[in-house]
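Table S2 (continued). Query chain:
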Amino acid sequence: MEPFVGFLHGFSRYQTKQSLVYDLQEPFRWIADVTVVDAFESGIVDLPDFYFTGDDYRYRFDPEPKQRFLDLLRERFNSGVRYKGRALKWDTVIEQKTNELGHFLVGKQPSIEFVEPAQRLERPDGRELRTKILKLTSSQAKELCIGKSALHYLREKARDHRPFKVYSTTTAKLR
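Corresponding output:
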């Protein structure tokens, strides 16, 4: 496959613009997008980590927060997903999809789809759970076997707009 000839992105004679590579990133762009949101919400990166260079109208960020972000992104790409009955890492799935595209282009495969594997994104601290936590009385928490200190922590975190973790056993009790 010629990396300079893409389907979505135009042909480029420049060595730095590999249109096919940009095309192949589109179905998986959400992985980077979700990682950016997670990085800001968790405080791994923050606005003061960025600076503006007026000569090329781009924002750049300092090496230390950049490394923290790249570590988070690497973790995301190395996370597992079920694909064709197997547990694979996302980077392996992307490689397989690239091979499938090559087989499709040379006629070895009649069709190609980029819908699978579909990832289901769920927030562990969604609005519904936050509302339940804030409405939970001490007596109701006691009936659910949620201790006073855990209830205090949950209420404190539910009032804040930042993400927080809830143990799966506690989440199951609240559902």
